[in-house]
Amino acid sequence: DARVTQTPRHKVTEMGQEVTMRCQPILGHNTVFWYRQTMMQGLELLAYFRNRAPLDDSGMPKDRFSAEMPDATLATLKIQPSEPRDSAVYFCASGLVLGQPQHFGDGTRLSIL
Amino acid sequence: QQPVQSPQAVILREGEDAVINCSSSKALYSVHWYRQKHGEAPVFLMILLKGGEQKGHDKISASFNEKKQQSSLYLTASQLSYSGTYFCGTEIKGGAQKLVFGQGTRLTINP
Predict the structure, then answer these.
(1) What residues in B contact A91, CB-CB < 8 Å?
(2) A38 touches chain B (CB under 8 A)
(3) Which of A69, A104, B61, B110 could form a disulfide with A93, with the two C-beta atoms 3.0–4.6 Å apart?
(4) B-chain residues within 8 Å CB-CB of A42?
(5) What's the pLDDT score for residue B40?
(6) What one-character DSSP code corresponds to residue A26?
(7) Minimal-distance CA residue of chain A relative to B98
(8) Measuring CA to CA, which residue among A47, A46, A36, A44 is closest to residue A89?
(9) Contacts of A69 (CB under 8 A, 6+ apart)
(10) How many CA atoms lie within 13 Å of A43's alpha carbon, on the beta-carbon side?
(11) B104 by DSSP, 3-state: which?
């Protein structure tokens, strides 16, 4: 079965450090989503891309977060500098057009000390 | 814009039925349902695109009332494997092509 692959699965780092999370979408999917999940906020959409172009990053703190899609097989989410409040599970999902299912990766469990 | 799910949590005995509701304040293009088990990723269950549409597989089904901007997920004769948190996600008509998830409904099935 085709799967969305995320790396790393777990990341523990100290406040102030740069964090990079990577996502390989399912081959052929043209839309990539980044979500953050916490107990308090649930599943929040941070940003998404269609055909590698950023369509919406309104859910992302602009001063420290950035998302890119350098090619069709790789999406990245960076946090610089990281803060303890960024601790969460970050999911990448990929899909096709409106009205089609999204397929989630296993997530990156991030802890900022 | 976030849809509202109810109830927030349900505890059932194996074999009992449950209904989870999802309501939006906006006109909807589609409603997605996902299930997430503890420590795992959300898994797609089904999408409803048309008002009045009903879908289902196994003993899990859903309906979409477009006029009321609501969807309901039905779990009948629940099994232990149904335990998890259920999320609805909504795509708004005429809005950005993105999914906004509800806060989730935690379903616990006891033997």
Answers:
(1) 41-42
(2) no
(3) A104
(4) 87, 101-104
(5) 95
(6) P
(7) A98
(8) A36
(9) A32, A49, A52, A54, A75, A76
(10) 28
(11) coil
- A25 touches B at CB < 8 Å: no
A38-96 pLDDT tens trace: 988 889 999 999 999 998 888 898 899 999 999 999 999 999 999 999 999 999 999 98
Cβ neighbours of B101 in A, within 8 Å: 42-43, 45
As a whole number, mean pLDDT of residues B100-109 equals 95
Q: For residue B39, which of B84, B98, B101 has the smallest C-alpha distance?
A: B84
Contact between chains at A33 and B97 (C-beta distance less than 8 A)? no
CA distance B40 to B84: 10
More confident residue, A94 or B56: A94
CA-CA distances (angstroms) from residue B26 to B2, B4, B23, B69, B95?
9, 11, 9, 7, 10
CA–CA distance, A95 with A35 (Å, rounded to integer): 14
Per-residue tokens: B62: 């859903």
CB of A49 within 8 Å of a chain B CB? The answer is no
Quick one: which of A102, A80, A91 has its CA closest to A34?
A: A91
